[in-house]
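ligand=zinc ion
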Amino acid sequence: MTEGRGHRWAGLAAGLCLLLGTGCLGSRSRLVAEKAPLETGLGVFQLQVPPKKPEAAAMLQRALQNATPPLMQWGRLTHPVTVRLQPDHGALERVTGRSGYTWLRAWARYELLDVQSPDTWEPLKASQRDLDELLLHELTHTVMFQLAASSSDWVQKKIPAWFREGMASYTAEQAYRWPTLEQLARTLEDHPDWEPLLQPEELFEQQMEVAYGASHHAFVFLVNRYGQDTVQRLLHAMRQGPGFQEAFATTVGLPAEAFVRDFTRYVRLRGFKGGRLLPSAQALQAP
Ligand SMILES: [Zn+2]
């Protein structure tokens, strides 16, 4: 679920797997490719699953089906995606080349998605609903990468963490996991120098929930202010060549950094409090 750090290492992981070739998974986690690809309205998925996990494999198939309608608000996959059901957390860490990240449940790339088998999540094994939410979040990344870039230049687009995670959290309706706007405003009062979306690297490591919450709310702010079609045009613009910063400026009409500062100001000044009296109204009511 919380895979922000994972994405930043996507290039490294891809390189690692390339280097190790098919031996990347190690002998203890050999997966078997399902004979027929799974096709949903979103695209084509080739599943690779452990031979002794038929229930988990069935849950994964359901989650892919369930993720399809909400993801189609953005578009369709342009390339088939290989989905590997890793038998346990250790196997997931091996394929991502990291250790000690107990929170990691999945890792999305352009044409590849690794998912930890739902029966091995801790402290509780995942329900279908948990897996649905995870897949929806992760596949949002994959859809975004495919709509915005080719398989060879998706890492170079430099899509910032706030946009990647915000879009995924927005699509998977994960606001309930993160601080509210009011909690975020209070956190920013405690840290007057913070620009949570401009220095996300430290924040994702030290204050993960604040970083995800700020990303989620910033993406909602973007959609509310500029429209969902602007997000689609932004992805399409990147596909034509420019990176995120350039495409954002031409599509949204202001630099991404200016947007981020607008959002932070909106949180700090509690612009989300619709019932708050405007200064002029306060003046009228003054004794
Ligand atoms: Zn994510």
